[in-house]
Design goal:
The complex is a heterodimer of chains A (376) and B (547). Chain A is mainly alpha-helical. Helices cover 57% and strands 1% of the residues of chain A. By secondary structure, chain B is mainly α. In chain B, the strands form 2 sheets. Chain B has a two-stranded antiparallel ribbon with strand order 1-2. The chains are: A mainly alpha (376), B mainly alpha (547). Strand 1 of chain A pairs antiparallel with strand 5 of chain B, so a sheet runs across the interface.
């Protein structure tokens, strides 16, 4: 029998010995002992927000505090975040703050909430065998056209927004672009996985049809062309403007809000609007920061007039592209059994919203404001 | 995640990309690498549907820990010696993080692999997370630690302090120049795969030993994202290796990236761990021991060497050279000594070393006391104002060093300093490899091959040049390193906040003129310069013991 005393002596464990140091705020009074705010930038309001504190000046700027300048350059001599990567100019790029105040916690909370909401709805739909209640024509609509939209979101997310979040002169702008990009990529994946979900549960649903539709269906070639041309834009602000202030209201909202969200319920589908609605909610947030940025740039005391001329030119270049893409989608309005909305009415609403957005920015709305119904 | 399996879901999202026919994505960032022959390699699978809730949960744990630290009065237990160095570290690190986010489109544009693009896009938003979570940690320190000065000017100080500029390479290097050199080799293959181990694993362990369990909470959460990033980098590397023509570039970039990371990260993290800790248990690992484990064994032997079978030429000589600098040549100790010499132009306080520290250093690095002990004794002797100048302006047998033009850490292994006239200017380099970086690697031609996409070293690379010939008080004022009474300095060479007479003010440092070693070098005649360089290389720079 062994006793406690027989056990071999164990080496004493080595571990750090915490000490009471009394190094907490207020333990002593001395110069700067109460200096408990970041003093290197001026917050927009009296008290700095969390968003401002964790975002401002993290990307340095030779026009602010960067003493030695950028220490690496590109082969052409440019370095850091050149302001001339856009034709627009600003008296102070740092004045832009994201009205959504996106930082780490908001990004994950918002997107995780969307994921949970979509997942729960889809779980309920599976339990209720909801897809099986769809008519063949509606299933085909979802398979082909709801499916095709995933590509537009992916293309914009990956090759417009991820691409340009390296390009703007401040951290506040680049972070807003980065958040925009993950909205798009998440939404694209939501649509892809929704497509997979249906394919696994609905006999005859072709989960691969969306690719061929996106690549060759004449109704979608305008949207694809618009998307691809957006990815090719060099100027980051032009890409942002043409995507969020032209393509989205004229094509994105037209398809998502003025078609899919309007007709799904009448066709016995309550799941597609949940997935699609999440994307629409993302766009609301993304539009908010885009409008804030362009309002600032177009109202700039020194450069506002010049910026307006540039953006007006962009508008004239891109509005026809997106209007053409929108019009080519017209056949979709007649492809479901229930057709509660007319294409002309939908496009009129999209054009009206687009014109309001543009006029709010102080730009001249494009000439083509004729009602689609009257035009006929 | 739904019942759909991850691999099925991942396969499905590969359907999202397509081959464009109307227009192709803009090329914003050039590379000299070629991927036409590359087989597509899959990175770690990640679907955003599972990613967002996972990260939200990780965040909740971190923020729970933060609440707990405040409720539990963690700051009654943190070591000021440790926290002061965090003013420097946390001023630097959010920029490399956000730079890594910005680097992702450079890699995406260069590598034609849609599966990989998804992984890189997820990495992008990870990096936004890391940057803001670290900024928030710093904000918490500023609010709850006894001395907020230095935290309160953090991003400004990062942008104008010499130490911030050294650290800025570990960030600017990710986003500028050849897209693959920057966003893959420098960022992912070396910085993330090798050096985040010491940054985000070894250093947080030391923080915990010094009473700070928030740094581990935040940085281990950050590190748990890194495995995905490492997987992204590895996939790009395997694709690059498929083309023979890339191998010469890979060899160049691995040499540059390895050596620069060693110079910069080992200087900083080595100093924080060795000179910021109060934990002097003889059986706790020294930085050299940590380096041997995390860098030499885990990275070099387990990750780099196996890549030789794919034809990658590994910089064995530079790995051994880095180890030699750390183990035999006192690299970390010399850097810490330099930081402490320059204390008036820092924005944090540096605690002197005590007998307990001496004993620990001697046991870990035999011979340490003979080389550095007397200098630290002088540092302690001169720590309060009144009877003396700051140590850099007193004769303690220490010559202020030249700065390396490439890595911007001073030329501290003095016998290795290289001097060369480059682009019409006399420049000093800490080593042959740093000289090669400037004169050979970052040039439009490399070994007879055109490298039009390669970056350039730019900027005012010697910090001292910005203040040559100016009075120290004016420099500190210009930097903004003054406390809210308008006269007391933020930096102090001690931790004594309890007595105003012990705190240095602008008046105490006035009358000392600051000289740029590089300006002085360029003003010398050829003979003077040769003599100066010979003296510099041969001088031991060891402070004699007080009688």
């Amino acid at each position: 029998m062994t006793t406690q005393a027989d056990k071999p002596a164990k080496a004493e464990r080595s571990f750090p010995k915490p000490q009471f140091t009394d190094a907490e705020a207020g333990a002593l009074v001395f110069p700067s002992s109460t200096s408990r705010a970041f003093s290197y930038y001026k917050p927009q309001k009296m008290r700095a927000t969390m968003y401002e504190d964790v975002t401002f000046d993290v990307q340095p700027d030779p026009e602010r505090h960067l003493l030695q300048g950028w220490i690496y350059g590109f082969a052409d001599g440019s370095s850091g975040y050149p302001q001339d990567w856009t034709a627009l100019k600003s008296s102070d790029w740092h004045r832009f703050l994201d009205p959504n105040e996106e930082w780490e916690q908001t990004i994950y909370r918002n997107n995780a909430n969307v994921v949970r909401q979509v997942q729960q709805n889809l779980a309920n739909a599976r339990k209720a065998e909801a897809y099986q209640q769809w008519s063949r024509s509606w299933a085909r609509f979802v398979e082909r056209h709801v499916g095709a939209w995933m590509h537009a979101e992916q293309g914009l997310g990956m090759h417009v927004f991820v691409a340009i979040q390296r390009s703007a002169p401040t951290n506040m702008i680049n972070n807003a672009l980065a958040v925009n990009s993950v909205h798009k990529l998440r939404f694209a994946q939501d649509l892809a996985l929704y497509n997979l979900d249906i394919e696994e549960r609905l006999d005859g649903f072709d989960g691969s049809a969306h690719r061929e539709v996106w690549q060759s269906d004449p109704a979608w070639q305008g949207v694809r062309e618009n998307t691809e041309r957006l990815t090719a834009v060099q100027d980051w602000a032009e890409a942002l403007f043409a995507a969020n202030l032209v393509f989205e209201p004229l094509v994105g909202e037209l398809f998502r809000s003025h078609l899919v969200l309007q007709i799904s319920a009448r066709n016995g589908d309550y799941t597609t609007p949940t997935v699609m609605g999440a994307g629409e909610n993302d766009y609301d947030r993304d539009l908010r920061y885009t409008r804030a940025l362009f309002t600032l740039l177009l109202g700039d005391a020194t450069h506002g007039a010049g910026n307006k001329a540039v953006v007006q030119e962009w508008l004239e270049r891109w509005a026809p592209v997106s209007l053409e893409a929108a019009r080519r989608l017209q056949p979709l309005w007649s492809q479901s059994a229930e057709k509660p909305v007319r294409f002309e009415d939908s496009l009129d609403r999209a054009k009206e919203r687009f014109a309001r957005l543009i006029e709010d920015l102080g730009l001249a709305a494009p000439a083509d404001r004729t009602s689609e119904r009257n035009a006929k | 995640m739904s019942r759909q399996s991850l691999s099925k879901a991942h396969k499905k999202i590969t359907e999202l990309s397509w081959d464009p026919t109307f227009a192709t994505p803009a090329t914003r960032f050039a590379t000299d690498y070629r991927f036409d022959k590359a087989p597509k390699k899959d990175p770690l699978k990640q679907v955003l549907r599972s990613y967002f809730p996972m990260e939200e949960e990780k965040d909740n744990r971190v923020y729970g820990a933060m609440d707990g630290a405040i409720r539990g009065n963690m700051f009654r237990q943190v070591q000021e010696r440790w926290m002061e160095w965090q003013k420097l570290f946390l001023s630097i690190i959010p920029f490399p993080e956000i730079s890594a986010a910005r680097a992702m489109p450079m890699a995406i544009g260069a590598v034609p692999n849609p599966q990989l693009h998804n992984g890189l896009a997820v990495q992008m938003i990870d990096e936004v997370r890391h940057s803001t979570i670290q900024m928030n940690l710093k904000r918490l320190y500023m609010n709850h630690y006894i001395d907020p000065a230095g935290f309160d000017i953090s991003e400004k100080a990062f942008a104008n302090c010499y130490a911030g500029t050294i650290g800025r390479q570990f960030g600017e290097g990710f986003i500028t120049g050849d897209a693959i050199t920057a966003a893959n080799v420098y960022l992912t293959l070396v910085a993330e795969t090798a050096f985040t181990n010491t940054l985000f694993v070894a250093m947080p362990a030391e923080a915990a030993a010094n009473g700070d369990y928030l740094l581990p909470s935040v940085f281990h959460s950050v590190q748990s994202d890194e495995s995905r990033h490492i997987s992204n980098g590895y996939s790009i590397l395997l694709m690059a290796l498929a083309d023979e023509d890339n191998r010469q570039l890979l060899e160049r970039d691995l040499r540059y990236a390895w050596w620069n990371n060693h110079c910069v990260v080992d200087a900083a993290i080595g100093t924080f761990i060795e000179y910021g800790s109060k934990d002097r248990r003889k059986d706790r690992d020294s930085y050299a021991e940590m380096w041997r484990r995390w860098i030499y064994d885990d990275y070099y032997r387990s990750y780099l060497i196996p890549l030789e079978k794919y034809g990658l030429k590994i910089p064995h000589d530079l790995v051994e050279e880095a180890w030699k600098r750390i183990w035999n040549q006192g690299y970390v100790h010399k850097v810490a000594q330099f930081f402490a010499t320059g204390w008036p132009v820092n924005f944090w306080r540096i605690d002197g070393m005590t007998d307990d520290d001496f004993e620990w250093f001697e046991s870990k690095y035999p011979g340490w006391y003979a080389e550095y002990g007397a200098w630290w004794e002088a540092y302690n002797r001169l720590r309060h104002p009144g009877a003396n100048k700051p140590i850099a302006f007193e004769d303690v047998g220490y010559q202020y060093p030249h700065r390396c033009w490439s890595c911007m850490v001073p030329c501290l292994v003095r016998q290795d300093m290289v001097v060369d006239k480059v682009d019409g200017q006399w420049r000093t380099y800490c080593s042959e490899t740093c000289a090669w970086t400037d004169t050979t690697a970052f040039r439009p031609e490399y070994e007879g091959r055109a490298t039009p996409s390669m970056g350039r070293l730019t900027g005012k690379r010697e910090w001292e040049t910005c203040y040559h010939g100016q009075d120290l008080a004016d420099i500190v004022t210009d930097l903004g390193y003054v406390r809210d009474d308008g006269k007391t300095l933020i930096p102090q060479p001690h931790l004594d906040l309890d007595d105003a007479k012990k705190l240095w003010t602008l008046d105490d440092v006035r009358g000392n003129t600051f000289i740029s070693p590089n300006v002085a070098l360029n003003e010398m005649s050829d003979e003077e310069r040769e003599a100066h360089v010979a003296d510099y290389r041969s001088r031991t720079n060891i402070t004699p013991s007080m009688p």
